[in-house]
Write a structure and sequence with these properties.
This protein folds into 2 domains: 185 residues, no CATH class; 154 residues, Heat Shock Protein 90 (2-Layer Sandwich), CATH 3.30.565.10. The N terminus is likely disordered. It has a 5-stranded mixed β-sheet with strand order 4-6-7-9-8. A two-stranded antiparallel sheet has the order 1-2. A two-stranded antiparallel ribbon has the order 3-5. The longest helix has 87 residues. The chain has 345 residues and is α+β, with helices and mostly antiparallel strands. 57% of the residues lie in helices and 13% in strands. α2 packs antiparallel against α3, α5 packs parallel to α6 and α6 runs antiparallel to α7. The two termini are 43 Å apart. The chain is elongated, with a radius of gyration of 34 Å. The structure holds adenosine-5'-diphosphate and magnesium ion. Magnesium ion binds next to α6.
Length: 345
Amino acid sequence: MTSVDLNPPRDHDVPRTAADDAPRPWWRLERWWGFATGLAVGLADLALTLLLGLRFEMNGLDVTLAALALYGSTFAATGLLFGLVLEARRRDRRAAAIIAAQMETAGATRARLAQSEKLAALGQLAAAIAHEVRNALGIIRSAAQGLNEGLPAADADAQRACSFITAEIDRLGSVVSSLLSFARPPRLTPRAVAVDALFDQALLLARQDLDAKDIRVVRAGAASLPEVSADSDLIVQVLLGLLANAADVVPRGGEVRLGARADGDGLVEIDVADSGPGVPEELRGRIFEPFFTTRDKGTGLGLAVARQIVEAHAGRIEVAERPGGGALFRIALPEARAARMEAVA
Ligand SMILES: Nc1ncnc2c1ncn2[C@@H]1O[C@H](COP(=O)(O)OP(=O)(O)O)[C@@H](O)[C@H]1O
Ligand SMILES: [Mg+2]
């Protein structure tokens, strides 16, 4: 398995730079270079003609200089025209590149719009169903609990059946909740938060899952980092999902590493790496799709929701192979300072 480039070029970037857009100074325009070349050829001809002693005569008059001036200016004009053609071709190429980039962006926007329309419809449907299902689940759960309490202590089979019912109802409840959070676009209340505080909170909530499998947690490098602009509840939810996935695949006694660094470009990168089997390369493009799961009891919504939340923060989430084996999930979030400056601009 090879590692994946975690910083691929963004595909909708328009291939233009500030230098491309600035008007070029006159001495960099092809037309003047063409003109100068034509003039130089004309002057060289003049020098050669004078050197060889050639003469042009008309009606007995020496018109050598006039003829050479005519040729020279024809060369210069041809050079100028040639330069203008080159400039026009350069302009066409640039315009074609811009149009191609704009069409690509428009295509991506259309796809996003279609996706958000689908999500909005799914959201309404999910909310309606969730309401009904949740009510029914609540009633079934409390009925099962009541039954359990009324059972004689000796009836172990029936008690086990009741606890199965409540456990499965709790699982269904969490499926309904993840479906709801996927279908409803997240509403953010971003604030400046320290990455360390996000780690603290996520680890506190994941502690039980991690301890149950004796998983060691290693934290590195988040103390002196700039704060990120984030809705801490939502980002903690993302981290918790990643930790739950890690706890699921890491063998007993394995390891989870949390780390963070500033990328120097206004983003803070947060890594969650585990010593599990890693994500096979052919699945890396699919694990963020909604409903993609390889687990028997998985919903396939954890990473889809995580991506939705991170992208709503103008960040990104990617997966790669951890050096030495295992999965490495990397979340990039905007630095609080960079986000503030953008808001002011
Ligand atoms: N840490 C990990 N190591 C290996 N595979 C993972 C890891 N995290 C996620 N995956 C893969 O991604 C799939 C989707 O994950 P997720 O969206 O959280 O859904 P679920 O956990 O319900 O399966 C998982 O079924 C698993 O195949
Ligand atoms: Mg999951």
